[in-house]
Input
Amino acid sequence: MAFLRLKLHWQILTALALAVVAGLSAGTEGGLFGVTFYSMFDFVGTLFLNALKMLIIPLIVSSIIVGIAGIGGSRNIGRLGGKTLLYYMNTSLLAILVGLMVVNAVAPGIVDGQPAKDLVGFTTDVSTFEDKVAGRGTGDVVEVFLRMIPTNIVAAAAAGQMLGLIFFSLLYGFFMTRIAAGYAEVQYNFWQGVFEVMLKITDLIMRFAPLGVFALVAKVVAGTGFDAFAPLATFFFSVVLALAIHFLVTLPLLLYFVGGVNPIRHFKAMGSALLTAFSTASSSATLPIAMECVEKNAGVSNRTTSFVLPLGATVNMDGTALYECVAAMFIAQAYGLELTFASQFTIMLIALLTSIGVAGIPAASLVAISIILAAIGLPVEGIGLILAVDRILDMIRTATNVWSDSAGAVIIGKLEGEQGILAGQSQGEHL
Output
C-alpha cells in the first residue's frame, strides 16, 4: 500500500530497478507451472504497449484539431509552426554536433591504434536485418515525405502514418474555424469532447504504468543480460556520453537561457513521461503521457502542446540523429576508413535529414544508418557490429527525443507569451 501512495514517477523508477533484478534472475528459461517468466513479461508488456498505442490516433487527431481551431488565424499558425520547426532543426543539429565531437574524441572504433573490426566481429546474424535495409537509399526519405498527404486518411491511420494524420488534422482544424459559426461550434465541441475522453483514458492506463514498465524492462534484461555489452563497451558508452551531454547540458541550457525556466523543475514535471519513454522505446507510445505532463505539470497551454508534441513525436528525433552519426562514425573507424571533413559533413547532413524523414519506416535507425554508410562508401553489413547494444541505446535515445520535444513545448510556450509555465511549486503532483 505504501508503494501506491508514492508519486507515479517514483513508482515507475522502483519498477525499473525491480525489473533489472527480476530479468537477471529469471533469464529466458526460468518459469512457473510450465510457463516461462520471459513469456509473462512479454505478455504484460505487450498489453501495456497496446493500451498506449490505442490512444495515439484519436489523441493526436483531436488534440491537433482543437489546438489549431483555438489558435485561429493563419498568421498565428504560421508563427507557431515557424518557431516549432526552427527549434526542432536547431536541436537536432546541436545533437549531431555533440555526437561528432564525442566520437572523434573517444574513437571507439580504434583499439590500440588499430581498426576494431576483427576484434569486435559480427555479434548478430546479418540476415536478421539485411532485409530491412536492403535496397534502401535517399529516395526512401522522399517517399516518407510523400506520405504527408495520404490518399486515404483511414488507411493512413491504420498504417500509423503520423505525418499524414498530422497534416490532415492541421487542415481540418484550420478550416473548421472558417465555416458557419453554428457548424463550427458543434464541430469544436465534438472534438473537444473526444480530447477530454482520451485524457481520462490516459489517466486510467497510467495507473498501470509501473506494471507495464516492469514487464517491458524485465523482458529486455532477461533476453540480453549484460554479456552483449562487453565487446562494444566503448561504443556503447560513447553514445551514452553524447546523449547525456545533449540531455543534461544542451537542452537545459536552452530551457534556461531561451525559455527562461528552471530545467530541474521541468525535469521533475516530465519524470513519468521520460521513464515511460525509456521503457517503451517509442516516442509515439509515450505521446499521451508526455502531453499530460506538459499540460498539467509544466503548465503549457493545450494550444501549444497539441501542436508541438505530436509533430515532435514524428519529426524531432535528436537522440536518433545523434545515434546515427556516432554509429556511422564508429563503423567507419572499425573498418579503418579515414573520414575527411567533407565526409563528416555528409554524415551530419544525412543524419539531420533522415532523423526527420525515416521516422515512419520500420527499423528506422537501421535504415538511416544504411543510407549514411552507402553515402560514405561502407558496406551495409557494418550495422551488424552494433545490433547487440541497439535495444538499450534505443531506450535511452527515445527518452532524449521526448525530453527535447517537451523542452520545445515549454520554450515555444514562453516565446508565445504564455504565463504560469513551470511557475508553481508543486510540479509533478498531478501524476
Summary: The first helix runs from residue 8 to 26.
